[in-house]
């Protein structure tokens, strides 16, 4: 059969005729309704010529390409029998079953000689998001294990997609974009952190030359997995252009006994003919369709950069009062609350409230927090252990890695795959959540794995999160990993928030939030108002810039408000009031990013789903290239409706370098159609570097 899945302007056509492993004929723009004879004609019309000095059959890219099919690129599957002679290039998979619905395909292939079966699951969501994964099974009856070396999703992209974008980075500088032309050969990214890492490729985008946020065809993939992974794009003179992704498995890491299976992570793939914003426009509604978020994202105050390890109850109680005064809704006690934890060199794993600093337990603080109308959150790092801890001394066998291997931040990794270690952690977390009125866990992960099985550790983490959630379904969880080192669609299924980066420097945050938001909707992206001088870069920033940056996401504060002036506290209270008023728009609308010829200027915004309103930010990252910036064009509005555009004053005005502002700003507003705003735009103030001006747009 030839299968045609269609949704939201996307077509996927799969040729599953005969007994060969099926092949994807088309993934991209919708080709319209095609009758069976037209699908056959299309498949036959795409049958290529046989080139000289090649296999004696038309070349084809299957769902599981291997050397057996004449595929000389990176294979989609690799298995072997330990101690035996079977190898992946001898796999002769044949199609034995196909099941289909309007939105999905399940294709089963098998090699009876090798005793291997693979089930490929393909889904096209109503939002046009493609999801693909494979499951391999060992069909041997007795005493014949099967080692899985690789199981990846390989998707074709057209040859016009010659430009590649993905991401790299480091601590406090995550999601740094890098792009280049894809030449002959493979561009491969392998991540061996036991988590995606600060340098995570994150989203692999192959597109037409010059694609940008609002223009160009792109084919994007993301691996929904929180452990080691490999992603690649490959162009060969001997075959089609492909993009691939899968879990990066160490030798012998996954070995299947007879009857056992290994399931690859989902590869999430998006086609867009409207640039990178088109990718977000598909992913965000899809994520929201299954999101665990059930209530508005509260304004958070986190104590880390306010007090660090100095947990003094009287000081914290004054911070609670300040938080109440400005309108905070969630107070989070960060690292330092458990037995003996006075710095980052000791006590991880000893998850008991420190009786010396907390003589009455956490109850006095929690009662003050809840009495002030806020809920309470707590920092934990369950996957880690300090060598200087009672847990490590009592259970050294629970610690992963060689004992002589270097530590990282004076800590090691606890083996979650050890049933006793798993039970201990689940028991301690359950006990804390049962004893105390805790509404939120900031779940941290501050080092790479560097030892043990990343596969088993990741699957055990998922089980632990799932069991905690089952026991305490009302508790929100935030994924933090030295900031933004574990942000992916695998972890997002199990949390309500991600800590986007450990930096609160607004200049760094502008780029980090911009690119993390390509995949993750803004309501997940934790962003905090920090002190004037950043604790990670030592750069000083105006309050207006910090407020404008932290507004777009799951907003919070990470600043010792006891050190803020009266005027600053009033401005923070006004900012929080604006956030609460705009929260329904910010956390349900469509994110738009405006392309600019000037790299010093960024513009972005959120448009209401019904196109009735919007909020937009014009941001000057550095000195502009020209004295007068180009007019700001706002895409995504209803072209026929008229919108009143007003500056949004957060209380601390943005600094500008101009003798007189644009005329419409002196008058306070301007009314234009959505079409005029999108095609022509409006004049912008001459912002000084590291400043942001916000605007609201309301339909009349």
Automatic annotation (TrEMBL):
Gene3D superfamilies in alphabetical order: Aldolase class I, alpha-galactosidase from lactobacil brevis, Golgi alpha-mannosidase II
Reactions listed under catalytic activity: Hydrolysis of terminal, non-reducing alpha-D-galactose residues in alpha-D-galactosides, including galactose oligosaccharides, galactomannans and galactolipids
CDD domains according to UniProt: GH36
Pfam families: Glyco_hydro_36C, Glyco_hydro_36N, Melibiase
EC code(s) of this entry: 3.2.1.22
Protein name: alpha-galactosidase
Residue ranges of domain Glycosyl hydrolase family 36 N-terminal in the record: 22-257
Key words of the record: Glycosidase, Hydrolase
Species this protein is from: Plantibacter elymi (nom. nud.)
Enzyme class: hydrolase
Superkingdom of source: Bacteria
Residues annotated as domain Glycosyl hydrolase family 36 C-terminal: 603-697
């Amino acid at each position: 059969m030839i299968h045609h899945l269609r949704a939201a302007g996307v077509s996927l056509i799969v040729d599953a005729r005969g007994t060969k492993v099926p092949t994807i004929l088309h993934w991209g723009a919708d080709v319209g309704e095609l009758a069976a004879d037209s699908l056959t004609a299309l498949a036959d019309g795409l049958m290529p010529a046989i080139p000289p000095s090649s296999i004696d059959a038309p070349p084809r890219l299957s769902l599981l390409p291997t050397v057996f099919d004449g595929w000389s690129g990176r294979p989609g599957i690799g298995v072997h029998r330990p101690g035996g002679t079977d190898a992946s290039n001898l796999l002769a998979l044949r199609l034995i079953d196909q099941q289909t619905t309007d939105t999905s395909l399940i294709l089963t292939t098998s090699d009876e000689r090798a005793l291997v079966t693979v089930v490929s699951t393909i889904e096209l969501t109503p939002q046009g998001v493609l999801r693909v994964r494979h499951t391999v099974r060992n069909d041997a009856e007795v005493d014949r294990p099967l080692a899985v070396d690789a199981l990846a999703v390989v998707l074709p992209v057209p040859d016009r997609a010659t430009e590649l974008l993905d991401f790299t980075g480091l601590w406090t500088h995550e999601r740094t974009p890098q792009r280049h032309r894809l030449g002959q050969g493979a561009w491969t990214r392998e991540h061996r952190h036991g988590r995606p890492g600060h340098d995570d490729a994150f989203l692999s985008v192959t597109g037409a030359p010059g694609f940008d946020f609002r223009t160009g065809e792109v084919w994007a993939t993301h691996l929904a997995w929180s452990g080691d992974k490999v992603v690649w794009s490959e162009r060969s003179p001997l075959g089609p252009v492909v993009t691939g992704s899968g879990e990066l498995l160490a030798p012998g890491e996954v070995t299947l006994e007879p009857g056992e299976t290994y399931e690859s992570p989902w590869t999430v793939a998006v086609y867009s003919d409207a640039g990178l914003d088109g990718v977000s426009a598909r992913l965000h509604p899809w994520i929201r369709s299954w999101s665990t978020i059930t209530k508005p994202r509260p304004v958070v105050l986190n104590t880390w950069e306010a007090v660090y390890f100095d947990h003094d109850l009287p000081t914290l109680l004054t911070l609670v009062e300040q938080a109440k005064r400005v309108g905070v809704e969630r107070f989070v006690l960060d690292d330092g609350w458990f037995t003996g934890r006075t710095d980052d060199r000791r006590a991880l794993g000893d998850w008991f409230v420190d009786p010396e600093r907390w003589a009455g337990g956490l109850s006095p603080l929690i009662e003050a927090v809840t009495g002030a109308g806020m809920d309470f959150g707590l920092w934990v790092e369950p996957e880690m252990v300090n060598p200087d801890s009672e847990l490590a001394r009592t259970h050294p066998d629970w610690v992963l890695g060689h004992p002589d291997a270097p530590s990282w931040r004076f800590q090691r990794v606890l083996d979650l795959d050890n049933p006793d270690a798993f039970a201990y952690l689940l028991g301690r977390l359950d006990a804390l959540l049962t004893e105390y009125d805790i509404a939120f866990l900031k779940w941290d992960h501050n080092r790479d794995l560097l030892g043990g099985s990343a596969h088993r550790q990741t699957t055990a983490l998922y089980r632990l999160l799932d069991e905690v959630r089952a026991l305490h379904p009302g508790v929100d969880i935030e994924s933090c990993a030295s900031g933004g080192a574990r942000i992916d669609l695998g972890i997002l299924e199990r949390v309500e928030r991600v800590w986007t980066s450990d930096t609160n420097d607004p200049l760094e945050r502008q780029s980090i939030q911009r690119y993390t938001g390509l995949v993750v909707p803004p309501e997940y992206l934790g962003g905090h108002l920090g002190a004037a001088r950043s604790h990670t870069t030592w750069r000083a920033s105006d309050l207006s810039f910090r407020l404008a940056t932290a507004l777009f996401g799951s907003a919070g504060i990470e600043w010792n408000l006891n050190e803020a002036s009266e005027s600053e506290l009033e401005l923070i209270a006004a900012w929080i009031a604006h956030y609460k008023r705009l929260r329904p728009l910010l956390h349900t609308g469509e994110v738009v990013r405006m392309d600019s010829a000037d790299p010093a200027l960024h513009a972005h915004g959120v448009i209401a789903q019904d196109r009735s309103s919007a909020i937009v930010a014009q941001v000057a990252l550095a000195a502009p290239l020209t004295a007068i910036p180009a007019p700001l064009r706002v895409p995504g509005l209803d072209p026929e409706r008229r919108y009143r555009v007003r500056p949004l004053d957060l209380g601390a005005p943005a600094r500008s370098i101009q003798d007189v502002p644009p005329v419409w700003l002196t008058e306070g507003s301007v009314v234009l159609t959505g079409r005029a705003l999108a095609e022509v735009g409006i004049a912008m103030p001459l912002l000084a570097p590291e400043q942001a001006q916000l605007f609201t747009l309301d339909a009349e």
